[in-house]
Specification:
four-stranded antiparallel sheet, mainly beta
Length: 441
């Protein structure tokens, strides 16, 4: 009989020569010979081997575990020169405590916060650490064929990926109260470096928690969750460029003068659009992961008690930035949108559910931050009435070739250079823009 490594001998017995029916015993091993009879010039018999596995393991200092047995039949060299004949048992495992492990209680608490702000809201982001804990972990035994990944703790809403630990190896320092026996109870777990490490994930809601379960070779115990927490998490990176706005951050956003950088730590005020969850929205339209909407953020960690309350802030709301192109004279452009619209970007502009004002940064005609506003919303461009924005009726630049979420605009013969200043005004709160990209011609 071999130990778990398949080479260490725990017990061995060699019988005397077999000359008839009999039972031969040594310690915990018995060999029984039956139906012994002549077979031509040889003899035949049935043999069974019994091993008292529990006694052998106990005698060797084990309380159970993996083992296998090997039986070797050595033939009579005088009458049969073949052999020996060997049977090797597939390894098996004796579990003297087959109870499935359980976890009593799970907790998670902020340890150190790495945060960022978008439209006045503060979010946990990559690098924030928490202390994850569990108590009353029972039957997480030494007597197991599973010596890694015995305990898993995760916090999906916190953007923390599942962490597999074991009191026998990786993460062993996070366990306490563990004793190396088969009926282990009352083990605790604490990890103060449970870190937000998942990119491109967001959570906003009141049901964030940590969960944990223990497992042995045969089964996983049921999952235990911590109490729910109210948190904001955003681990997306900014992806906007000179010609693209993805609303993952506010790095390209400007104040209404088009040149002053936007302050993301400042609370929104009336008339200011909200960048939230990768969208440009009215502040009263922010959605939670549960599917509901929310505007009062005062109870949300990481800065509960000091987060803004946007109740009462609604449309119309505006967003300002520059869209830049230094390639030369720019006679026209296409703005391509994605998101949720009442109909589509072209139709919503025609109906003034969405309004967009454009000013040339430089070039011909009226230019600069104080230039006459040109309108992509309302009527289509009309060469006969266009006056470069000197009047409202002469300010329309949306071309009739616009369709769906592709909106074509013209500068009416007054070429722009360097790009444009743009104001995007959401008039209907049902509009949520997820991206806006310009191509100049």
């Amino acid at each position: 009989m071999y130990a778990a490594d398949g080479t260490t001998v725990l017990a061995t017995y060699t019988t005397p020569a077999l000359t008839g029916n009999a039972t031969h015993t040594s310690g915990s091993i018995s060999v029984t010979i039956s139906s012994y009879a002549a077979d031509d010039n040889r003899f035949q018999a049935k043999m069974s081997v019994t091993v008292g596995v529990g006694a052998v393991l106990t005698g060797a200092g084990y309380s159970g575990g993996r083992y296998n047995c090997k039986v070797v039949m050595n033939t009579d060299a005088t009458t049969d020169g073949s052999g020996p004949y060997t049977y090797t048992q597939t390894s098996v495992f004796l579990d003297t405590n087959p109870s499935t492990p359980t976890v009593g209680a799970v907790t998670i608490a902020e340890n150190s916060a790495t945060t960022k702000h978008i439209s006045g809201l503060e979010y946990y982001t990559t690098g924030s650490t928490f202390t994850a804990g569990a108590t009353n972990i029972n039957n997480l035994n030494a007597n197991t064929a599973k010596t890694t990944n015995n305990f898993q703790v995760s916090a999906t809403e916190y953007a923390i990926s599942a962490l597999n630990q074991s009191p026998f190896g990786t993460g062993s320092s996070n366990f306490s109260g563990y004793t190396n026996n088969d009926n282990n109870t009352g083990t605790s777990y604490s990890n103060n470096a449970f870190t937000i490490n998942t990119a491109s994930q967001r959570y906003a809601g009141t049901a964030a928690n940590a969960s944990a379960f223990a497992r042995d070779t045969w089964a996983s115990g049921s999952t235990t969750n911590s109490a729910n927490a109210t948190i904001l998490v955003d681990t997306y990176s900014g992806t906007s460029t000179n010609t693209l706005e993805t609303f993952n951050d506010e790095a390209q956003r400007k104040e209404s003068d088009y040149t002053t950088n936007w302050t993301s730590t400042a609370d929104l005020t009336a008339g200011e659009a909200m960048v939230y969850g990768g969208q440009l929205i009215s502040p009263d339209q922010a959605s939670l992961n549960s599917g509901g909407t929310n505007s009062n953020w005062t109870s949300y960690a990481p800065n509960s008690g000091s987060q803004p309350n946007y109740t009462g802030l609604t449309v119309p709301v505006s967003f300002y930035r520059q869209l830049l192109d230094s390639s030369g004279d720019l006679a026209s452009f296409t703005l391509t949108f994605s998101g949720t619209f009442i109909s589509n970007a072209t139709t919503d502009l025609a109906n003034s559910n969405l309004e967009i004002y454009v000013r040339r940064i430089a070039g011909n005609g009226s230019t600069g931050t104080g230039a006459n506003p040109l309108r992509l919303h309302g009527a289509n461009y009309n060469f006969a009435s266009f006056d470069d924005g000197a009047t409202v009726s002469g300010s329309y630049i949306r071309e009739s070739s616009s369709s769906g979420n592709s909106v074509n605009g013209t500068f009416g013969g007054f070429a722009a250079t360097q790009g444009i200043y743009i104001e995007v005004k959401i008039v209907n709160a049902g509009i949520k823009i997820t991206s806006m990209e310009i191509t100049f011609f």
